Amino acid sequence: MPQRAYVIDEMISAKTIAARVEALAREITDSFAGTDKLVVVGLLRGSFIFIADLVREIGLPVEVDFLEASSYGDEMTSSREVRILKDLRSGIEGRDVLVVEDIVDTGFTLSHVLTILRARGPKRLEVCALLDKPARREVPVRATWTGFEIPDEFVVGYGIDFAQRNRNLPHIGKVRFLE
Ligand code: IMP
Questions:
Q1: To the nearest whole number, what is the mean pLDDT of the chain?
Q2: At the top level of its lineage, which domain of life is listed (predicted)?
Q3: If you measure from the C-alpha of residue 103 to the centroid of ligand 1, how many angstroms do you get, rounded to a whole number?
């Protein structure tokens, strides 16, 4: 299918994101104070920039791991079937775990990932999502910490893609089709 022409309108500036990431990291640091090590699990690929910025502001010993679940492919609509494409390297039984997600949209991905991780018996399992689109929710799942609630718009930038493009934008923008 040929790519439709679109422009990207800035929605959240890089400066606003940085301030919010710092505030989230402070809350996470306070909440997990006393942990011997926090396992920070980034959901690939959309969270890679967010997790990189977030862990540098967290004042605790951290271990970073990644998990990849299938989601949109190159489409703009969510698929209900969620598969694990790349699993964690480390076990999480009895450990403090923070899942870092780019966007909670319908909620299928996050709820599926949480079911899998919960079954592994972590001591504590929390979620930090950069963006939340509550209007799109089909599964009742909530992140412990959310960066920004946004309206039902398709967004890109700061790690988030549209058909594998625009992840390298420093801000978050919404996609506006020209025709
Ligand atoms: P969910 O399973 O519908 O909650 O989808 C979550 C995943 O879909 C996110 O982790 C993103 O990878 C992707 N996604 C949701 N909304 C957008 C968007 O606006 N732009 C790009 N990817 C999105």
A1: 94
A2: Bacteria
A3: 5
Cα of 120 from ligand 1 centre, angstroms: 25
CA distance 103 to 77: 13
Q: What percent of the chain has pLDDT over 90?
A: 89
Which of 158, 160, 162 for mutating ligand 1's site (highest number of atoms within 8 Å of CB)?
160
Is 67 within 8 Å of 43 (Cβ atoms)?
Answer: yes
Residue 101 CA to ligand 1 centre (angstroms): 9
pLDDT in tens, 96-133: 999 999 999 999 999 999 999 999 999 999 999 999 99
- The candidate with the shortest Cα–Cα distance to 167, out of 77, 97, 103, 87, is 103
Ligand 1 site residues (CB inside 6 A) read: 46, 71-72, 78, 101-110, 154-155, 160
Which residue among 50, 70, 71 has the greatest number of ligand 1 atoms within 8 angstroms of its CB, and so is best to mutate?
Answer: 71
Count helices and strands (H / E) in the chain.
3, 9
pTM score of the predicted model? 0.94
Identify the structural domains of the chain with CATH numbers, from first to last: 14-154 (3.40.50.2020)
Backbone angles phi, psi at 131, to 5 degrees: -125, 150
Whole-number Å distance between alpha carbons of 34 and 44: 28
